[in-house]
Amino acid sequence: MIKRRESKQISIGNIKVGGDAPVSVQSMCNTDTRDAARTLEQINELAAAGCDIVRLAVLNKDAAESIKEIVKKSPVPLVADIHFDYRLAIQCINNGIDALRLNPGNIGRRENVEKVVSLAKQQKIPIRIGVNAGSLEKELLEKDIPLSEKMVISAMKHIKILEDLDFDLIKVSLKSSDVLTTIEAYRSIAEKVPYPLHLGITEAGTLRGGLIKSSIGLGTLLAEGIGDTIRVSLTENPVEEVSAGIDILKAIGLKEQGVNFVSCPTCGRTQIDLINLAKKVEEKFKNLPYPITIATMGCAVNGPGEARHADFGIAGGIKEGYVFKKGEIVARVPENQLLEKLEEVIRKSYK
């Protein structure tokens, strides 16, 4: 059982972040926010995949105006991503946004910061301070200290601006494309502030490489109890980010929603098309709402026994296979009927 770091709890819409709240999964739309219809379409796709919170890029006042229509129809809370222009933050708050991603040190004069913070405080709108290793302040870049320390110093500077204005609805992220730098930065900030932490490896890459980096970075921190909400950043359809985030949480026991898939590696005993079969099993059953484990095993010799922990599964034979439940074989059918039979067994168990 992972002992979570204690942190202040905030609310982003109806989603609690920090404290004893479950670790939530986030993603970001890659649509033009000015196109409310397309943006809502993608938000609904993300929500259907299990996303808890969605972030939107707000590049100009037309995008901020579009927020008004989007928030009315969104099934999940929304975060406005703001850079430099404090007026966009104010416009988004007035249009009903649930939270901001905003670095107060980047939006100009103190009076402008005060305007945003005052309104956010009045409307109880949390602000995420998001520090990226690639966009640190010039004076920090010149310091001869580790990059992770520079990131923490930058975050603490922005945090102090908000705290000096008596604002504490704060969430913090410190992202680098380097996994170890990110881990060290989060470990350090976790000891310095009480605020919830948003985890992520920025610019992680395409699907395969990004998954590996994010799994190592986020998995390490979450296993240490650090992290209250996560985004797996991928150069891919944002729905893949959500699936990856959920899978990471399930892998370390922080989420029980939906199906946990297991399958054995191929070996010389395998007499069935195991690779394609495992992919078909995942695709067919990925949207089941039950918190179950489904195994796809390559042979009947060890399959049911090795996957005895699974609730349901398939073990391959020679052009046929076995369907098992809790390690006990319940059916023997031709290879082309395995998926159909497995579905029948699962459905009967949840009538």
Structure description:
The protein has helices at residues 36-48, 61-73, 86-94, 110-123, 138-141, 147-164, 179-190, 207-223, 238-251, 274-285, 303-306, 338-349, and strands at residues 10-12, 15-17, 24-28, 53-57, 78-81, 99-101, 127-132, 170-175, 198-199, 229-231, 260-263, 293-297, 312-316, 320-325, 328-334. It starts with 9 loop residues before the first strand and ends with a helix. With 351 residues, the chain is an alpha/beta fold. The strands form 3 sheets. It has an 8-stranded parallel beta sheet with strand order 8-7-6-5-4-3-10-9. The protein has a 5-stranded mixed beta sheet with strand order 11-12-13-14-15. Strands 1-2 form a two-stranded antiparallel sheet.
Structure described in brief:
The protein is built from twelve helices and 15 strands.
Which CATH-level-2 architecture of the largest domain?
Answer: Alpha-Beta Barrel
Quantity of strands, as a count: 15
State Rg.
23 Å
Low-confidence stretches: none
Average predicted confidence as pLDDT: 91
How would you describe the shape? elongated
How many domains? The number is 2
CATH topology of the largest domain: TIM Barrel
Q: How many strands, which pairing sense, and closed or not: the largest β-sheet?
A: 8 strands, parallel
Helix content: 40-55%
Through-space gap between termini: 32 Å
List the helices and strands and how they pair.
Elements: E1 10-12, E2 15-17, E3 24-28, H1 36-48, E4 53-57, H2 61-73, E5 78-81, H3 86-94, E6 99-101, H4 110-123, E7 127-132, H5 138-141, H6 147-164, E8 170-175, H7 179-190, E9 198-199, H8 207-223, E10 229-231, H9 238-251, E11 260-263, H10 274-285, E12 293-297, H11 303-306, E13 312-316, E14 320-325, E15 328-334, H12 338-349
Parallel strand pairs: 3-4, 3-10, 4-5, 5-6, 6-7, 7-8, 9-10, 11-12, 12-13
Antiparallel strand pairs: 1-2, 13-14, 14-15
Helix pairs in contact: 1-2, 2-3, 3-4, 6-7, 7-8, 8-9
